[in-house]
Write a structure and sequence with these properties.
heterodimer; A: mainly alpha; two-stranded antiparallel sheet; 5 helices; 61% helix; 6% strand; B: alpha/beta; six-stranded mixed β-sheet; four-stranded antiparallel β-sheet; 30% helix; elongated
Chain lengths: 136, 298
């Protein structure tokens, strides 16, 4: 997978990596059991501190998104639902709250916002289905 | 103090003057082991003088310098055993070949990773039979980097390592520092890099100190700095209103737009601008180089 770091977003670099890997897992660009790039290779490629990659991977591990197999590397979890349901909901709530704040500032109405959420869910579904068809 | 809590580098109230010209005036900072620390400053800001005090090439006139808790003046051998250094002006014996230079330099070291040496010679396409005197500036820097990485020291000190090099060599240099040096140590190896070419080190820097005229202007974690320093732009229907922008580092007005550089006060300034119902408002973080410029202008 290809990462895109943005030093002008104000978001810590390791979090940008965490979010991009989560997004790749959600859209099916990364499949369960698939390997993440080795820390050293990714650090060199992105010209980012090795510790930043290690921090992103350990964050993903604590979220249950990836599993580390000692000596072999990091793999996307077979069942990314390693977290309890309320913990998962809480994580999602924080992101939704941020989007709501942003929508308010951009003067997007509640109706428009909800419509947009439905559209995005449909877009992700479509992409995932397209990938499944490709693999069959 | 447990061993792990000893900073890799601790500089406290360091002062150094060349005759009457004060190069470093009361500089303090500390580097936690395993991190990459940037020392940013313009030419002549005091970066190299500070580095030379670490290496015992200069003696501090006041203040203290410690490397792994040791005084470089009293424990020179032990300090030099634990660090490697790439200076801004690399010099080798011109009559020695690349091979002879590496053999010579490795003879001073307890450890020398031959596999890394081979990998890096190949990566940089350096001919082991070529004389050091015939190498280009870029190739001399590459040779110095190989000599600094192979001993696998706990600390790597880089003084303006990429100035005067072409973009490809600069890029390879940084990839090598990350891959061959830092990633080889499982998070335990420390880097101190002084540079004014900040953009290319952006992803590598954990924490930094900006120095100007020998004094510290700003010390921060890189991620924190990028969250604090913001550029806010707002466009209004008419002339931008006169808003109280207390906390702004810099305000620029042009036509119907106003641009504000904020340090920490970003959210407050955004709210104040919004009260005047702008047509549009954008916010972005400053990069480390932009923070450097903003901090020195303020």
């Amino acid at each position: 997978m290809i990462f895109q770091l943005n030093y002008k977003s104000g978001k810590p670099i390791y979090l940008q990596l965490v979010d991009q890997i989560k997004a790749a897992a959600a859209s099916g660009a990364l499949q369960p059991g698939e390997a993440l790039p080795p820390i050293r290779a990714l650090a060199e490629e992105l010209r980012v501190n090795r510790n930043t990659i290690a921090k992103a991977y350990s964050e993903l591990e604590s979220l249950g998104v990836v599993e580390t197999q000692p000596g072999r590397g990091c793999f996307l979890s077979e069942s990314p639902a390693g977290l309890r349901k309320d913990a998962r909901r809480k994580l999602l709530m924080e992101d939704i709250d941020q989007a709501i704040v942003q929508a308010h500032h951009l003067q997007v109405s509640e109706e428009e916002f909800l419509q947009l959420v439905r559209e995005r869910v449909a877009a992700f579904d479509q992409r995932r289905k397209a990938r499944e068809v490709q693999e069959v | 103090m447990p061993l792990n809590d000893i900073p890799a580098i601790a500089i406290d109230d360091l002062t150094y003057a060349y005759g009457r010209a004060e190069a470093v005036r009361g500089l303090s900072f500390a580097v936690v082991p395993g991190r990459c620390y940037g020392l940013f400053g313009r030419n002549g800001a005091g970066k190299t003088t500070t580095m030379k005090c670490l290496l015992n090439l200069l003696r501090p006139q006041s203040g203290t310098v410690r490397v792994f808790g040791l005084d470089p003046a009293k424990s020179e051998v032990e300090v030099k055993r634990r660090l490697a250094y790439v200076p801004d002006q690399v010099a080798f014996y011109p009559w020695m070949t690349v091979r002879e230079t590496l053999d010579y330099l490795s003879s001073f070291r307890e450890r020398w990773n031959l596999r890394t040496e081979e990998e890096l010679l190949e990566r940089f396409r350096l001919d082991p039979g070529k004389r050091a005197g015939e190498l280009s500036k870029g190739q001399r820097t590459q040779l110095a980097l190989i000599a600094a990485i192979c001993p696998e020291t706990d600390l790597l000190v880089l003084d303006e390592p990429t100035s005067g090099l072409d973009p490809i060599v600069r890029r390879e240099f940084i990839e090598t520092v990350i891959g061959a040096y830092q990633a080889g140590g499982e998070g335990r190896r420390t880097i101190l890099v002084s540079t004014h070419l900040i953009t290319e080190f952006e992803g590598l820097i954990d924490e930094f100190t900006i120095i100007d005229q020998g004094r510290s202007v700003l010390t921060s974690e890189a991620d924190d700095a990028r969250q604090r320093y913001q550029r806010i732009r707002a466009r209004f229907a008419g002339n931008p209103p006169e808003v109280d922008l207390f906390g702004a580092l810099r305000v620029q007005r042009q036509g119907r737009e106003v641009e504000v550089i904020a340090d920490g006060a970003g959210p407050i300034i955004q709210d104040r601008l919004r009260e005047h119902t702008p047509e549009a408002i954008w916010t972005e973080a400053l990069t480390l180089e932009e923070i450097f410029v903003a901090a020195l202008r303020a």
